[in-house]
Design goal:
The chain has helices at 62-67, 73-87, and strands at residues 9-16, 24-32, 39-47, 58-60. The chain is α+β, with helices and mostly antiparallel strands. The chain has one domain. The protein has a four-stranded mixed β-sheet with strand order 1-3-2-4. A hairpin with a 6-residue loop joins β2 (24-32) and β3 (39-47). The longest helix is centred in the last third of the chain and has 15 residues, at 73-87. The chain is globular.
């Protein structure tokens, strides 16, 4: 059985979708700067009309998340599912 590191990141997937069309996906990042090691909250919002979750969150792209070493919440969920399947 392999051990995996628990990252100090909270991943949130919010579904605010429309009925007929596939909504756009938006990402927001909040990094705790006064904490070591670095901690963060990443919000993935699927919405036709996005509303930023708060002034502490910064809109980011998938590429910017990856540059900082983060995954999107959907990618993180896939990683956890893959690890669960490999440990079964």
């Amino acid at each position: 059985m392999s051990k995996t590191a628990v990252l100090p990141v909270i991943y949130i997937l919010a579904l605010c979708s429309g009925v007929f069309a596939a909504p756009a996906v938006y990402y927001y990042l909040y990094e705790y700067t006064a904490v070591s090691p670095k901690e963060a909250v990443i919000l993935e919002m699927q919405s036709d009309n996005p509303t930023p979750p708060g002034s502490e969150f910064t809109p980011v792209t998938v590429e910017q998340l990856h540059e900082k070493g983060y995954q999107t919440p959907s990618e993180y969920a896939e990683t956890l599912q893959s690890l669960t399947m490999s440990n079964a």
